[in-house]
Design a protein that fits this description.
This protein is of the alpha/beta class and 285 residues long. The chain contains 11 helices and 9 strands. The strands form 2 sheets. It has a 7-stranded mixed beta sheet, with helices on both faces. Strands 7-8 form a two-stranded antiparallel sheet. The protein binds S-adenosylmethionine. GO terms for molecular function: methyltransferase activity; S-adenosylmethionine-dependent methyltransferase activity.
């Protein structure tokens, strides 16, 4: 297996935790960008919102899924896990601020959930997190192991035509040559591969749903502020030869402007970045 890159190690995500928390926090509990996809995953799997249940979020970041979940699922207990101590530290401040008793947070690698017992969880989720694991199947096997029989899982993955994915791909194609750079986050961007991996692990009643929510920005230059501490951006930077590194930011802006040509601003005066994801759903037999 290749050496893990920035977006596959906890330090890489520690560095973006504070910026991440600006978008996923108690101030935007049901409107945070990735939370909108977490809500899709919850809605696609939980039939009875009043049921007593244990919900495990893997790669929770600053806790978007659980923070939203406590407001909707009154009889649920949440376990929010992430391998980035900084993400969990910020989630802990949110839990304290809101005086939430039903979210337990843990620093944990999603490829090894050992402290969590077999067949003890009703629902497992991983929204745009498992896609970064060096061993995707190992992560899925752990989700399967901890689920009760009949329990359900939902995993969020970006689609190839999502704006941010396209920006990074076209930028790197322009700087390095076509198809020389492969984004780790695209590990489950092929619907058939996604389905096959869930099947391989043993999940049944598999469904891959395509969903979309726009990301709003004021100007394309804002992307650079957002990316400047992001491990995915550092993966790109490190893949470039020294003479191309200084061109990365401007190329991202040029590609973004090109992709948004002809797009009108929305009623809030913002640019909407089309963002598509697959939610892969499976059930334990
Ligand atoms: C793009 S963020 C998504 C966070 C959150 N799920 C959300 O949707 O807001 C990816 C998260 O996955 C976490 N992550 C990546 N690899 C991981 C691993 N092997 N084990 C646990 N967490 C991991 C990162 O630390 C980061 O918080």
């Amino acid at each position: 297996m290749n050496k893990p890159i920035n977006s596959q190690v906890s330090k890489g995500w520690d560095s973006t935790a504070e910026v991440f928390a600006k978008y996923i926090s108690p101030a935007n509990i049901s409107t945070g960008f990735s939370t909108l996809f977490a809500i899709d995953a919850l809605n696609a799997t939980i039939e009875d919102p009043n049921k007593e249940m244990t919900i495990l979020d893997i790669g929770s970041g600053t806790g978007g899924l659980s923070l939203y979940g406590t407001s909707k699922y009154k009889n649920a207990r949440f376990i929010s896990t992430d391998f980035s101590p900084k993400m969990i530290q910020i989630l802990d401040t949110f839990i304290k601020e809101l005086n939430i008793q039903t979210i337990e947070s843990k620093v944990m690698d999603g490829q090894n959930l050992e402290p969590i017992k077999d067949s003890s969880i009703d629902y497992t989720y991983s929204i745009f997190a498992l896609i970064f694991f060096p061993d995707i199947v190992k992560g899925m096997k752990e989700m399967y192991r901890v689920l009760k029989p009949g329990g359900k899982t939902a995993i969020g993955s970006w689609c190839l035509d999502s704006f941010l994915i396209k920006v990074f791909q076209q930028t790197m194609d322009e700087l390095l040559g076509n198809n020389s750079f492969k984004q780790v986050a695209l590990s489950l961007s092929d619907k058939q591969v996604f389905e096959d991996k869930l099947k391989e692990v043993g999940f049944v009643n598999i469904e891959i749903k395509r969903v979309q929510h726009p990301m709003e920005i004021q100007e394309t230059t804002d992307l650079i502020k957002m990316f400047s501490v992001n491990p995915v951006y550092f993966d790109c930077l490190e893949a470039l030869p020294d003479d191309k590194k200084p061109l990365l930011d401007q190329t991202i802006i040029n590609v973004s402007n090109r992709l948004l040509e002809g797009h009108k601003r929305n009623q809030n005066g913002k640019l909407e970045l089309p963002s598509f994801a697959y939610i892969g759903i499976g059930q334990k037999n």
